[in-house]
Amino acid sequence: MNGEIEKFSRELPKIELHAHLNGSLNPITLQHLVDRKKEKKPHLTNFKIPNQKLEIIDDFFKYFKFIYQLTDDEETVAYITETVILDFHSDGIKYLELRTTPRSNEENGMTHESYIRTVISVIKKFPSSKHDIIVRLIVSINRQSTLEDAIKIVDLALKYKETGVVGVDLCGDPSRGHFDNLKPAFIKAKDNGLKVTLHFGEVESIIPEHASMLTIPPDRIGHATYLDPNSKRYILFNKLPIEMCMTSNVMCNTVKDYQEHHIKDFLYAGHPCCLCTDDKGIFFSNLSTEYSIAASTFSLSYQQLFDLSYQCIDCIFDGDEVKIHLRKLWNDWWELCKPTLNTLNMKEGNI
Ligand SMILES: CNc1ncnc2c1ncn2[C@@H]1O[C@H](COP(=O)(O)O)[C@@H](O)[C@H]1O
Description:
Layout: H1 3-11, E1 14-20, H2 27-37, H3 58-70, H4 74-90, E2 93-100, H5 112-123, H6 128-131, E3 134-142, H7 147-159, E4 165-171, H8 179-191, E5 195-200, H9 210-214, E6 220-223, H10 229-237, E7 242-244, H11 246-251, H12 263-268, E8 273-275, H13 280-283, H14 287-298, H15 302-310, H16 320-337
Parallel strand pairs: 1-2, 2-3, 3-4, 4-5, 5-6, 6-7, 7-8
Helix pairs in contact: 1-14, 4-5, 7-8
Subunit structure: Monomer.
Family: Belongs to the metallo-dependent hydrolases superfamily. Adenosine and AMP deaminases family.
Keywords: Hydrolase, Metal-binding, Nucleotide metabolism, Zinc
């Protein structure tokens, strides 16, 4: 990879809109958690995430059986939230929408509500004025939830709407559950002013759920790898922003390689695409690497990389005031940075 582009991608102000808390733990944090818990849970002693491409996406979801045992109390949830925010901060992320699925643990008194409260209490420690990063929360609902639980989670998201929750997400193993079972929960979220993002088209077998999902309608979708013609038309016509997770898709083998990634078609069409990490801890990536990969795969120029990052501002779930703040930040950075760039890479790239 071109070293100059890597440096540029690191320094570029960036927005992360699709990052699962428990999938974003760096290897050092994970090892630290293993060390802390191994006395009580000796079967986790040798747990490590292998840095290799998976054969099928089903294998990916198995990791959470282990990770969840490491993050099953409020103290640890607070610790990982802080670590993950600091990691994103040091990678040049200026606005982060972190997402997580509330969990409970009867043994130590953690409830869905105390889980959310814990995450929010850490987010509050990062006021933008002090820390140079704005953090918001998306509350995830797993596809395997019951409708009753999903509604409870939406109610909690609404309860904490004024303290940093901006939206809800549908996530989880796409081969489990069905969107229609949970649809009323998403309608409730939307009706009450929360934004909605849905994992969409991550695998081909999910296509029959698409038409129903689009009726919500979502404010963004994640992945959009496998699309039927009607959904694709809807997404393009409505300029529905897509959270693009290139390394995640390649590592889970839902996309053959970077060159074949569907982001290419959407970029050609001038469609709003937001590069995201998904689960940077499991895929050994970070957001600046995703920008470098996009640049080297599709020969993007500095200007195109900057534009790619800039247009994410329009796709955030927070309101106009934050958007205006971010636009100024981006423009000021670009004015300072532009004169120092190698003019060769300023020329238009392939897209
Ligand atoms: C590969 N792409 C993906 N597709 C679907 N769901 C995913 C995912 N990556 C992560 N998750 C969902 O996020 C949870 C972990 O973070 P939190 O416990 O919420 O912080 C996983 O259990 C899974 O449901």
